[in-house]
Amino acid sequence: MAAILLARKLDAFSRSLARKAPRFIIYEGISNSKTRAEQIGTKGYAVGFEGLVTFVHTAAPQNRFIEEVVREEVKMFPRQALRELIANALVHQDFLATGTSPMIEMYSDRVEISNPGIPPIAVDRFIDENRSRNEKLADLMRWFHICEEKGSGIDKVIEAAEVFQLPAPDFRVGTIHTTAVLFAHQEFSDMSKSDRIRACYQHCCLLYVTNRRMSNQTLRDRFRFDESKNVLVSQVISATKDAGLIKADYSVSNSTRYVRYLPFWA
Predict the structure, then answer these.
(1) Eight-class DSSP state of 127
(2) Could you tell me the residue ranges of all domains in the chain?
(3) What's CA 145's distance to the chain center, in Å?
(4) What is the CATH number of domain 194-263?
(5) pTM exceeds 0.90 for this model
(6) Tens digits of residue pLDDT in 17-27
(7) Whole-number Cα distances in Å, 120 to 34, 94, 128, 155, 202
(8) Most buried one in 74, 203, 245, 255, CB count within 10 A?
(9) Residue 24, CB-side half-sphere exposure with 13 Å CA sphere
């Protein structure tokens, strides 16, 4: 435990421990056919964490959309979101899995952060549930102020994506890996139906865990739409309801115009 957190050189302890170091790869374009740069970590997680996050954040392209709004240089992927997802990948990995390690893969249109292991909770409950796979490691990482161990990390990722006007993050479970995907900015018209549904569901969850409710207006604000896009946003809400991810909350009002929405599990 001390070595994986505090080592200056992981390979000085053992080859197997060094294999648990995070690996960062930058690709040319949107596929992994051509590698532009690669960096493999050598330090323990606590010693090297801030440097790793800074390195990944610095390598990200600029978010031109946000630059035009705030008139300053802003990276495409929010540092806070990268920080939370990298910490999650390190803390929640399956250390018994061999031949694999935490991976950070950056493409021109997204960054994928993966870790060995299948999550103990369903991906659509990442926002409101929390369970540490490695409790002792999570406790020490919290002590080092790397993670909070209170289930708010994914909330921060989704909130940052909304502020930076990015598509909703995607969380995917494979046969042996769990992957979080942060996408570069996209116009609403370029988003797929599943992208819009995911954004609606995550927005609804984010409001619910802060004791608020989603409405047509809050979702318009999430997409930076004015009232003229009311019908378009209603279509997204309807599609998300049909997908079984949200439901109407009539506890406040029965009016269809002022209806509020809850996650399906609330």
Answers:
(1) T
(2) 2-183, 194-263
(3) 19
(4) 1.10.10
(5) yes
(6) 999 999 999 99
(7) 34, 11, 14, 18, 20
(8) 203
(9) 17
